[in-house]
Specification:
Layout (H helix, E strand, L loop, with lengths): L5 H4 L5 H61 L8 E4 L11 E12 L6 E14 L6 E11 L1
Antiparallel strand pairs: 1-2, 2-3, 3-4
């Protein structure tokens, strides 16, 4: 059995303790910075999801506006002097419903002057939607041809 004398421990100055504390500090800084990076990535993915939801809702409203203009044209109730508009009653859980509007742009004709035959007309359809959080705002616009 080995017996240690107290004189052998008097030469120790605590270098291992200081080095281990510095190493612990470095590991803590690495851990904190990786947590901050993860939090930022979570925020970015949430914003991207909100943007996708707003885009899909605006696109659905745009299609509804095009269909409504086509339906009114076929029924003979489309007013070329006034824009038509509405809300898209979708199943998106949004704070406000996506909106759309359609307005007459120009007729499409074949021929010139009095002999011109109307083949249809062009309308401009726009839509607007916000995401679930209200921070994303998407506006879409299409030029739509309605044929006779």
């Amino acid at each position: 059995m080995t017996v240690y004398k107290s004189e052998q421990f008097n030469n120790q100055r605590g270098a291992v303790l200081i080095i281990s504390l510095i190493f612990l500090l470095i590991l803590s800084l690495i851990g904190v910075s990786s947590m901050q990076g993860t939090s930022m990535q979570e925020l970015m993915s949430g914003n991207l999801r909100d943007q996708y939801i707003a885009f899909n809702a605006a696109e659905a409203a745009l299609l509804e506006g095009e269909n409504q203009a086509q339906t009114q044209y076929e029924a003979g109730t489309f007013d070329q002097d006034a824009a038509i508009n509405g809300n898209h009653a979708a199943s998106f859980a949004l704070p406000t419903a996506p909106t759309w509007n359609a307005e007459y742009v120009e007729p499409i004709t074949a021929g010139l002057g009095a002999n011109a035959k109307e083949l249809g007309f062009i309308i401009k359809v726009g839509s607007n939607s916000t995401g679930r959080t209200g921070t994303s705002d998407v506006q879409l616009e299409s030029i739509y041809l309605i044929k006779k």
